[in-house]
Predict the 3D structure of the following.
Amino acid sequence: MNRSLSRSSLLLITLVISISSCKPDRTPDPIQPAVRTLVLPETPYNYAEITLPASWDNDALDLFENIPSFNETTDEGATLGRVLFHDINLSSDQTISCESCHHQSSGFSDNHQFSEGINGAMTARNSMTLTNLSYTRRFFWDRRVNGLENQVLIPIEHPEEMGLFLEEMTTRLSALDYYPALFTAAFGDPEVTSNRVGLALSQYLRSIYSYRSKFDEGEATDFANFTDQELLGKEVYFNGETKCNQCHMTNIFYTPGSMNNGLDLVYSDGGVQNQSGNASDEGRFKVATLRNLSYTAPYMHDGRFNTLEEVIEHYNSGIQAHPNLNDQLTVDSSIGGEPVQMNLTDEEKAALIAFLRTLDDHILMNDIRFSDPFVIE
Ligand code: HEC
Ligand code: HEC
């Protein structure tokens, strides 16, 4: 990471994680760094004033937008969120941060099929990318949680992720020397509460807009920047036959709601059904955004596909005749009908992938505002 700011202009706070503060019955992880230094800019980075491209100004996105009035993003609030997101003190044994499973360089997701939490426990699903969450209301692959402020505290207490009770978290964070100033800047006084932790993490996550892709540039220039292959792929994507854009829609290639895209005849993970108990919800999952796919492999809720070639072949010839299969993917446009066979040529498949890669936001992957502020000494 290229840090353009000189060290002298940075506020340096040294955090010494003392081994003796660990629970006596736990052996400290030998690779755990002894000293992590928090490095923040003197003036907070800009998170609150983002100018989105003109093409983002449309009714569909306005409809999706969900920024609660009680938690509008400030630069100070998002800065606190950035520190919390990268802080291993949010896990019981001080080994795991949110970033452990949501790496910036992996599109804020994880390149492993399942992610490792505390004590080597593995998650049951593939980690999710965290971009453009300002436009999402319900969270997780089965959309079981309403509101980001509620969602962000769940991984902290989750026994297989960070395993830290919120009460213990507030006590622990209050004792760290760098939080009083950060909480004061964000909320007016140094009090650490789990509510404030949720507000700050949400402000930070909502500021991760992905809007600087080749596709976004193309929208402003009538796609003069696209190669012939990318133009063909765009045509395949939007031609009304593949129906990709009927589920992955708008500038963020997402739609609210849960869908069955025919991965299995019988699902080992029922998705929305796990919550509702209804057979009509089996295999319904949140529609994943298609931005930054070059960074976020593997794909689907269980990370079953390692490559985009496999994903495209699924839609081209592998859709399963599940009774809940969404109507966009059936021959007669009825739910649970016979699955479509897209019969794409090799040229069209390659073009579709080339088009999907135009949705990569390379700038975001290196944006210093979302980098780890803790430097290992
Ligand atoms: C051990 C790995 C792990 C850790 C640590 C972790 N996450 Fe996640 N995260 C996941 C997985 C896996 C999912 C999908 C889980 C599911 O659908 O049941 C997920 C889903 C999410 C989502 C939902 C995104 C969406 O579009 O619906 C958000 C937001 C999120 N995590 C934020 C966080 C934050 C904030 C933290 C730290 C407080 C964190 N995560 C820590 C693995 C992790
Ligand atoms: C009926 C709605 C629907 C249609 C049509 C559809 N998808 Fe999907 N797509 C989904 C859902 C739902 C998921 C997540 C499914 C899961 O993980 O179980 C998904 C997941 C994906 C993923 C994986 C993303 C990730 O981060 O894991 C890719 C890539 C993808 N779709 C591309 C496409 C392409 C290309 C097309 C057109 C050929 C298409 N989709 C058509 C609903 C749809």
